Amino acid sequence: MADHYYSKRPETAHERRSLETVLRGRSYRFVSDSGVFSKQGIDYGSRVLIEAMQLPAQASVLDVGCGYGPIGLAAATLVPDGHVTMVDINERAVQLAVENAERNGIKNVTIKQSDLFDEVRHERFDVVLTNPPIRAGKETVHTIFELAYEHLNEGGALWVVIQKKQGAPSASAKIESLFGYVEEVTKDKGYRILKAEKKP
């Protein structure tokens, strides 16, 4: 089977590249590589989510499917008194995320290789962020929403970016079934930012 960005150990030959970008007014330097999601540059959906997400300064945050780190590291900058846990099944992505945290001087993060929520199964968070792995299939994406609900503190929020043509309507319906409602915070070039809070 060919490597996917949700492979545990990509075997694709390394092709590291350096990226410089500005997110929420701050400059970042990232390294990406082959075998990880959006290796050429930060994908538009992640950018839309990063610009839209509203995070309390002391929040405990989980980034599910962190890739080489742009969403989680941007989140860590937005929660200076909080902490961000970043997880991805892809070993190479996790190694890059660790490197990128160091490269950008971001210390309030924990980065783990994890199949979905396996390595954080006993933890709870104020915010769950995800740009879900659409190619892994609808069942996997909907499992992320279910587990996010279980792992959120009361009053905590799930933030999701998803393209309309890649399942936004069914994602919205699934989230609504779990949380009782879902808000479309913004939309941009076919990307939808969905938010739902876990009611006490």
From TrEMBL:
Keyword Protease: no
GO MF term (any one): methyltransferase activity
Parts of the chain that traverse the membrane: none
Pfam family, one: MTS
Keyword entries, A-Z: Methyltransferase, Transferase
GO biological process: methylation
Annotated Methyltransferase small domain residues: 28-195
Superkingdom field: Bacteria
SUPFAM superfamilies named in the record: S-adenosyl-L-methionine-dependent methyltransferases
Signal peptide: none
Name under which the protein is recorded: Class I SAM-dependent methyltransferase
